[in-house]
Fold these 3 entries.
Entry 1:
Amino acid sequence: RGPRCSIAAKIPVEWSPRGQAATHACTRIGLLLALSSLCIERSGAFLSSGFARTTSFSRTRSGSGSSAAARMIISPQEPLPQLGAEGFSLASFNVLLPNSKDGWWIYKYFGPSVSAEHREWPHRQKLMSEIMLSAKADIVAIQEAAAESFEEDFAFMSDAGYSHVLHSKLRFRTATFFKTDRFELLSQFPRDRGLVTALKAKEGGQTVYVCNCHLSAGPFPDKRVRSLHDSLDQVRKEAAKAGGGGGKKGAAAQPPPCRVVVCGDFNDSSEESAVRQLLTKGEVEGGYVEPAYPHVEMSSKAKKQALGTFEDSIAVGYAPNPPPSTFIAPLLDTLFVKEGGEEGKVEMTDAVKEAVGKAFQKVSGGKGYMDREDIDAWLVSINKQLGRGSESRSAARLMEERGEGKLLLQDFEEVYLSELKEGKFWGVDYDLDQALSCGVDKSGEAPFQTRFDYVWHTSETLSVEAVRDPLTQEQRALAAATDPLPNSWHPSDHLIQSCAFRYLPIPE
């Protein structure tokens, strides 16, 4: 994620992150990136376009609960329904790390048409507040909060009457906001890449458990399912404790039917993922292997959850049509990295190698090497100041190995090959194109779109009342054509997911 720490592996995959990746089928070899949030550095307002769309349709709801229930997709200009004692509303949003204090590199995510002002936090914060507050959700779960600046970054939420719980660990944190006039906090539990909160409705007294997740990306389906299972099991423990545990204790304690919402950035879109199986079937069999990752075994033992069957809330709202993409970003990997090469080996495409060569000639002044002055000027041009960025560290290492204060063309190529191996296509693209004016021709390349962000609910105890569209049709068409995310009117590469739920009677 953001700061992309990745393990490059040429294996069949279904997707690769940040839009710098094609939608690879299992017959296609691509560069698969792991995006760990613990590693290396990661015009006009959104709602002012005036576009509106309201669509309604009827469907039969699967699972328990009401049948032939009306579902409404509401436009971005409309707030979620206010259900009072009969239900609640929730939104989930990967905000893309705020760059107020941390996240200095975020400006590299934006396309060349976006002004410097619109890449900075004040503008992004304004857009973010409009997006997060306009839904009028009772609960708002975010991913990629920065601990150092959290209170200042999201002061607009406390001003609007929300309290919050912030994950106590990790650099890229989850946080869950809730309206203090609607809910009170019963308990909170930071888990492995998840934040579990138990909230009690002030009107009606219902307890809602929220699992706010930011699961690992890349070729780690085992980590994703392990993290989710950890959060779900925490809910089991709390619900069992509140309900008496069915006369049992510890791992055997069974919860009564309870109201649970699982949401966040799942960093996976596979219909055959272990995460989806755990939610929809309640179990992942021992030894299960996802088709997209044939060399990764989940676990020798089955993983089970005792909370019941979960439904994909957003899919319920959009049915019978498929839910739209939640992530729209430039497609770069096939332009930057050769496909079909040797297993585990990453090679620049000829176009990128040519662009890197042109950039070297430019920064070296054509003299065949970069001296210390050239190197400093190059680093300032791409990273805004000296002493930061993985390019700077790579250059320092290569100069030390060479034993002299200069870089040759092969060294310069090695710097950018290292960036590609780490999956930072967005950074290489910015450096070559926007900073050094030697970019690769990307004309005619449509952005990468997929669905990484989800909201799931327990189908026995909750039903979907409404789903809010994050974009108008015109905005989505624009982002999918010439203005991928983030851009001047949207502050993140992810889209907010919002829905309203109605309480169902708890089964005896």
Entry 2:
Amino acid sequence: RLWWVVNSTHATIAMEGNTLGYVSIGFGRSSLMTDADTITGWVSNSGAVTLLDEWSPDYNQPVRDASQDAHVLSGSQASGFTRIQFERAIDTGDSKDMVFTDADIVIIYALGTYDGSGSS
């Protein structure tokens, strides 16, 4: 599931998946992973939330952006679901981040059965 609220400067986004591993969403102009702006996160067994701002140049694992522009607001795991809420500027100034406009944006997603590695 995905929820969002957008104001004139920022988007607040919550993503939830039926997994105790990672959840990931991507924003692009097509349904393909290529050139997608991706956000991947997970909640560790201790409750620590990790969130990575990434970019997908191809069909392999996305690479971590030099500029981490997504910021965790909350994260939890319960009843087999992982939920992470984060905030990000509509226009981060990062060439690897999608600028949120009135134009159509395709959303892609991924779920994993394991937590991420902390880097990509």
Entry 3:
Amino acid sequence: WKSLVRVRRNHIFLLFSLILPTIQVALYCLAVGRDPVNLAVAVVNEDRSGALGTHFLRHVSSSVVEQRPFSSVDAALQAVQEGRVWGMLYFGPNYTHNLQMRMQDITRASALTVGNSLINLTLDTTNQQVALAIQSASVQAFLAFSAELVPPQHSHLAELPFRMRSILHTSDEKPRFVHFVAPGLMCTMIFSYTVGLTALLLVMEKKSGILDRQWSMGARVLEVMLGFAVTQVALVCLQCVLLLSCSVQLFSLPHEGSLATTVFVLLLVGISGLSVGLFVSSLAKNEMQAIQLAISINSPAMIVSGTLWPLEALHPALRWLAMLSPTSWAASATRGIMTKGHDLHSSSVQMAVVATCVWSAVFLWGCGLQLSRERSTPDAGGGPGCCTDQAVVQGCWGKMLNVGRRSWRAWEKRQKNDSVILSRGVPHNEFLSVSLPLVSLESLIVC
């Protein structure tokens, strides 16, 4: 109940917990995975035997490639070296003539003719994504350009000599990189934020003495852990619903499977993050230690989860670490649900459920073991006061006995000083003043 009251009173914390994972995923969808546009490319056209070079340049996508004419190859290469353009397209002096000779009799074309009929593309490969975008735009332009050079009845001769088909189960015709990253990013965001927010809960209660008072009132370890878990699980449910709604509705991410299955997997990821956060919080002595432990767990969990790059590209020494991480299994399962329509009968989803449940059980057991050790050891938590009922009783009785001894000594001293008055008969007001230490001692014992 205290956790619910804390969340209800702290509206900023509640808003932060709910919308920050959604904002992170939204920023990623807006900033990462989109096709590069307006890429400057130098064009050197020395073709004087015809206009096929110019005709090819018309088919290059103007939204992707921004053509900048140069007079010489040396000037264009210098611009590439200086970073003013991303590449160079070069057409030789007799490009049109050599291309026509090659297409008329391809079997008898000499090596010189074939070489002079090529389009030379030089790229700045320091940025791989930009280089791939220019290369893809050039290939698509050449396919459209070649289709116009052959007769309509032989248009198939201008196509590539193999057929590519996709088994992607999404309605989007062109898969994008964000479709690969977004499912894993949802899992890692839910896991990371749950770990970070939960890691500070027990530390704050230790520091303020609330946890010690709970132990003194007879609270059990399971009851304390459930008090934290119920509130955090409710927040994770709201995070999952808000995250999926924003991803599917606003950014049109594909979702071929069941929304309930996706929410179930993300909820298990959140519970595993909750268990890790409670374990970290039970080990940490202060907020700085909790933050350091949480960061040391969140960063590897995101790097080796296969969110930013396929697991098959990991170094062999890191693959065993990826297999132990719950986010890697959950990211693969969520990606399969959203893009391929997997359900609970799929092996990837079942492995994600098993991995997250085992991860949660291990760390919750570790947290319970640590809290039990602190509960059975006085002052183990670092907070004020004692940590067990027996320690509290012993401390209280010690204080009571010390006060009683001081009161008794004061009363004996007062009795010696008032012995003369007592022998003559004690008035009512003086009897009260002499008996005050006894009354105080009696009330102390009653309390």
